[in-house]
């Protein structure tokens, strides 16, 4: 049998990761064995081993896959949004929507597994940097009052980390998606001219 073309392998891997992420988002991952994952994805364990060498590596790779796709989806959501205030609101709301697909179990498992939590933390840092850019653009455009953009972004980042660490949920009962929408409303109202 001739080897499969590289695009098939890549497409197949992406499809498997998409299905894996869907499973993890819906049910979490800590309780699942590799046998259960393979059964649920209707593939063999050896197929899973082509994605990663262990369950831990598979979870980490799936988490990276999720956040990579999430970043693309968030940027697509704000691509046509023109006003700085609207861009920040759309950006944080889009982050909330993407995270809205994650079950409570997934978020708990993510927080309890350091390699996956580190992926979430790194993506939170990237999102905070993006908020800083959006605020700086708004200040330069006169839409936002002359705030220290890095401070405002750091304030947002602090809240984003608290959201990621589940502290906001514990204190308020808001899920991550709701928390990001509230953050967007408070942030843009507070810095508007």
Automatic annotation (TrEMBL):
Family annotation (Pfam families): TetR_N (PF00440)
DNA-binding region location: 33-52
Keywords: DNA-binding, Transcription, Transcription regulation
InterPro entries reported in the protein's UniProt record: Homeodomain-like_sf (IPR009057), HTH-type_TetR-like_transc_reg (IPR050109), HTH_TetR (IPR001647), Tet_transcr_reg_TetR-rel_C_sf (IPR036271)
Source superkingdom: Bacteria
Domain HTH tetR-type per the UniProt entry, residue ranges: 10-70
GO MF annotation: an example: transcription cis-regulatory region binding
Name of the protein described by the UniProt record: TetR/AcrR family transcriptional regulator
Lineage: Bacteria, Bacillati, Actinomycetota, Actinomycetes, Mycobacteriales
């Amino acid at each position: 049998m001739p080897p499969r073309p590289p695009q098939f392998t890549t497409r197949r891997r992406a499809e498997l990761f998409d299905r894996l992420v869907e499973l993890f988002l819906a049910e979490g991952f800590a309780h699942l064995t590799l046998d259960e994952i393979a059964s649920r994805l209707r593939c063999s364990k050896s197929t899973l081993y082509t994605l990663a060498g262990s369950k831990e590596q598979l979870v980490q790779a799936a988490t990276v896959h999720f956040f990579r796709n999430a970043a693309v989806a968030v940027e697509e959501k704000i691509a046509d949004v023109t006003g700085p205030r609207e861009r920040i609101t759309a950006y944080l709301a889009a982050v909330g929507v993407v995270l809205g697909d994650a079950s409570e179990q997934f978020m708990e498992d993510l927080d309890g597994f350091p390699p996956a939590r580190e992926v979430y933390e790194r993506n939170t840092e990237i999102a905070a940097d993006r908020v800083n850019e959006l605020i700086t653009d708004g200040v330069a455009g006169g839409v936002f009052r002359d705030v220290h953009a890095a401070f405002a972004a750091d304030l947002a980042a602090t809240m984003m980390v608290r959201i990621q660490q589940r502290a906001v949920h514990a204190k308020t009962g808001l899920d991550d998606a709701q928390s990001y929408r509230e953050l967007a409303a408070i942030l843009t109202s507070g810095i508007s001219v």
